[in-house]
Design brief:
alpha/beta, six-stranded mixed sheet, about 575 residues, six-stranded parallel sheet, 19 strands, globular
């Protein structure tokens, strides 16, 4: 099938026995892929996490890295030519949109590709505005790109690609960091563009339902990177359903079963809160409690504890909090930390930092409690301040106003203010998974990344006792378990930066789990996961809840919220 119109504008794609084998890997990522995509055809590429989907898109975009010519095999053609020679014909949206943001202002960033294609100046800005409108990014052209949320950067990246009007559009998890309504809007924008302009589309997405009505055809890769099914959308989804479920593809109407947290019960008290948003609803198994936040709201975990669960004690609390990505200088932060810690050592209450005027606030008037053995989901539209709030709760950003305080139980021999903690104090107390996992990788192999947290804990203990404690069997066993459960064992010796997006996300979660902190703060922990790895992640988080760990998850994943029996704090309602 092709797009409407007598002469489709889309490019033709051909792969001839294409394969890819990353250096140092035991198995190839892709093997003997042979297929064609007709001009204007719309294809959904499915397969388990790590099956080579992103690698295939990179090859089609001509951006694969193979300096010695040893990784790739076979042939990839776009309109009969090497993709690297198809300048301007291919538009590629990466799995991590942050890698595509190149300029400091929204309008300039969208215009960047057009300028490189030598589009006449009088055409550039109308195309920029049209592309931003298509993706629903309603911001001034001069708005700074550094102030965008992850979901907004995803919209910006898509706008930049659509503005170039490519003949082949390649999208890698284009809605992964976008809220539910935004995902529908982005999918609609892509559908209209490819239909109206006859663009050839190849999209990678784990959740099939969003794109089922948009694409003509589905190609399914198996776990070895080979084509297992290839055909019309509805027939292929029906024929491949068993394999898709087995490999973890999110087929419509199916969510894998997970073990519920021990504290979950069919009858739970409603969450408490005040605010100007809609009233909170009583929670149930089907609908976790929601606490809208527009003025002031207090989110508390109110589920009744069972003997097997934690006591639900408050570990971390925020009161009248306002948060911002714009922070004092490093020197000012260090000076405040020194003075505050000196006051704490004298047994004095450290003075609160003076409010900084004219700082752009991402979210404000927030009060919440984070409880042992309970999960709190932070939700809201893109740009509502969810990630900024998470980093502030983790002690990595300083509040604009209000306070974040650890309980005496969590703080132990450290100050009550998490923003005063050093790295050693943080790793034992609060584990943070950033929105972009690459930002927290420090070691050359996956195994060494997992060993880093326990190593820091041992080193800190050694300083306190003037010893150099060796690795324990418990540490080794925990690392081995995480490698196995999160399907990273075969990649233990791989460089973290060579992993797929979903594998990087699992590794980033595993690194904080390895240190066994009392509070986990996770930003989009299920991003890019197939259903199998999603199930393993959820079961691991449930295990943490049952042992008394508090979990805070910034997420758009409604299935995750339900599986963790999480209270919900909605920003920007």
């Amino acid at each position: 099938m092709t797009a409407a119109g007598p002469v489709p504008a889309g490019a033709a794609v051909e792969l001839r026995r294409f394969g890819w084998h990353y250096p140092g890997r035991q198995d190839a990522s892709l093997s003997e892929v042979t297929t064609t995509v007709a001009p204007g055809e719309r294809v959904l590429l499915l397969g388990p996490s790590g099956a080579g989907k992103s690698t295939l898109l990179q090859a089609l975009a001509g951006v694969e890295q193979d300096p010695d010519g040893q990784s790739g095999s076979g042939e990839v053609l776009v309109d009969g030519a090497d993709p690297r020679d198809a300048r301007g014909a291919v538009g590629f949206m990466h799995q991590d949109p942050e890698t595509q943001v190149v300029l400091s202002r929204v309008g300039d960033d969208v215009a960047f590709g057009l300028e490189n294609l030598a589009v006449p100046r009088e055409q550039i800005w109308p195309r920029v505005r049209d592309a931003l409108e298509r993706v629903g990014l309603d911001l001034p052209l001069e708005h700074p790109t550094t102030a965008l949320s992850g979901g907004q950067k995803q919209r910006l990246a898509l706008a930049g690609v659509l503005a170039m009007r490519p003949r082949l559009l390649l999208l890698d998890e284009p809605t992964a960091s976008v809220d539910g309504q935004g995902a529908q809007e982005l999918c609609g924008a892509v559908a209209r563009a490819v239909r109206d302009e006859g663009i050839t589309l190849v999209v990678v997405e784990h959740r099939v339902a969003l794109w089922e009505s948009v694409v003509d055809r589905v190609v399914v890769l198996d776990e070895h990177g080979r084509v297992a099914f290839d055909g019309p959308t509805h027939e292929t989804l029906h024929e491949a359903r068993a394999l898709l479920q087995e490999q973890g593809t999110w087929v419509p109407g199916w969510v894998p079963e997970t073990r519920p947290p021990a504290h979950r019960s069919d009858s739970r008290a409603p969450a408490t809160g005040t605010g100007t948003g809609p009233a909170s609803r009583a929670p149930s198994v089907e609908a976790p409690a929601t606490v809208p936040v527009t003025a002031t709201a207090t989110a508390t975990a109110t589920a009744a504890a069972t003997p097997a669960a934690s006591d639900g004690a408050v570990l971390l609390s925020a009161r009248d909090l306002a948060v911002s990505r714009v922070q004092p200088t490093r020197r000012a932060v260090a000076r405040r930390r020194r003075r505050a810690r000196a006051a704490w050592r004298r047994g004095q209450e450290a003075p609160e930092p003076a409010a900084v005027p004219d700082v752009p606030v991402a979210a404000e008037n927030i009060s919440l409690d984070v409880r042992a053995g309970r999960a709190l989901a932070v939700t809201g539209v893109n740009g509502a301040g969810k990630s900024t709030l998470a980093l502030t709760l983790a002690g990595l950003l300083v509040p604009v106003r209000g306070t974040v305080r650890a309980s005496a139980r969590l703080a132990g021999d450290a100050p009550r203010d998490p923003s005063l903690w050093d790295g050693g104090e943080l790793v034992a107390r609060v584990g943070t998974v950033f929105q972009h996992p690459e930002h927290q990788f420090l070691r050359p192999t996956v195994r060494q990344e997992l060993e880093f947290g326990p190593e820091q804990l041992r080193r800190r203990a050694g300083v306190a006792h003037r010893t150099d404690p060796p690795a324990t069997e418990d540490d080794a066993a925990r690392v081995a378990e995480l490698l196995h459960r999160l399907r990273l064992a075969d990649l233990a010796d791989a460089n973290p930066f060579t992993l797929s997006g979903g594998q990087k996300r699992r590794l980033s979660v595993a690194t904080v789990l390895a240190a066994a902190p009392d509070v986990l703060i996770l930003d989009e922990p299920t991003f890019g996961q197939d259903a199998r790895t999603w199930q393993e992640l959820v079961d691991l988080l449930v295990t943490e809840l049952d042992r008394g760990t508090a979990v805070v998850a910034v997420t758009h994943d409604r299935d995750l919220i339900d599986a963790l029996a999480a209270e919900e704090l909605e920003l920007g309602a």
